[in-house]
């Protein structure tokens, strides 16, 4: 039978640990602490330095845009004319202002806004069940963009935060270069969340941004 | 065999071939760190998996089945290429587990999110959109996977004896990372498409098609570089080459992640990832070719006494210790290819048995030697 391989050696032990194994092991621990503790901590303490300006336009999916309010921050997503990478038909955008978060998710969806909101509600119910949390929701109401696209919305109130979920389905859109000219219904889900006070103070900003969503001409 | 040839003794000693891997080593700090970080990673990943199981179970199951099969295919391929002084299965499994659980859960998930967010905060969301992944993942993820190679080299110093071992172990670590990441992308794809399982299958297709120039390859190159950097008793450290290869792995990873931003929205956007993939494969093949000679030499030294005994012919030894093309051309020139292949399989098993028995003349070795003769007669 072949011997097993270990590096243990009684003569080189300190507190029961082989001293030759200490340096590489501690190096790995230091790397783990750096990545999982130090970097997230630095991130939490770092403010945004490049806030959005008047005239900035976010591309929330190929051919669909949103005009963000100046002073908010783009935590994720692309600004029209500022990126090289094409924005796909499935994409996410995240805008933040202090403790208020406006997250936009876009993906192909063949159905009505109400059907999209029902699907989102079903997923959220599953997630809340898994997390052991629950949120109360309001009746649904209509929301119309300045371009005239009608969506459906509902408000929610949870333990830590409250907000709104809005669903649109844009009937036509232009896809990427490879298939330019084809039309596919595009579902757009907007989730606004945050503490009650900050959301109330930013209500006009939020409504303006949601109403600014439009498809490319 | 009354005498124990010096070359055989040296080959077994230097290669560590035939030794078993034991993870449980209470006196080795690397063991405790390995276990702690795998458990930490498992806790983080279990949170994700439970959410995916609750809301996107179809996508999660699809991903696990599809990428589980992909893992088997790549695992077989890496093992197939590791045909000389083979890395033990338990060590390969420990590497895979590190990549799949610890490197992602205890390192990359939190680290990547933090660095991507820092890019967005410092340079703007559009910069992060274009370049964030390419400037984050290659550093965080290669270091996270490389940490596992370092720990396992500390746990099995007699088994990781050459940069080729680093290449193979790195490939297993990278494969674990790749499969775990692929499964998460499958359910994230569904989550981003309002739970549509079809989106998960689109992700599965894309990730499978692009699975060659991926983590198993980056980490293979990184692993060979790491072992060259730290050196082994019979392979002196070459710090410049080692550091260069580790940086090359990061660079290749970064170029791949930056392909979309480099190519832009042009009709030839497929060209950039194709060039990057070709360059990465070329680097991997170069590393393979430059790390494998010592393994072949160990195989030759281990089996040379069998040629003296008449158990193995010189041509069979050349095929056994040669490249794949040498092996193939040897089989092609034999009158009965099927028998020739079976004989080589039996000779390979004899080599493994000799190594397992530490070169001692045991009943098992004699049986393996007899099996070679029997196969030759069929």
Described by strand count, sense and barrel closure, the largest sheet of chain B is: none
Estimated structural class of chain A: alpha+beta
Runs of chain B in which pLDDT lies below 50 for 5 or more consecutive residues are: none
SS-based structural class of chain B?
mainly alpha
Element pattern of chain A in H and E: EEEHEEEEEEHEEEEEHHE
SS strand fraction of chain B: under 5%
Give the overall average pLDDT of chain B: 93
Distance between the termini of chain B: 25 Å
The biggest beta sheet of chain A is recorded as: 8 strands, antiparallel
Q: Give the beta-strand count of chain A.
A: 15
Note the overall shape of chain A.
Answer: elongated
Order of helices and strands of chain B: HEHHHHHHHHHHHHHH
Number of strands of chain B: 1
Features:
A: 217 residues; alpha+beta; 8-stranded antiparallel β-sheet; 4-stranded antiparallel β-sheet; 27% helix; 32% strand; B: 378 residues; mainly alpha
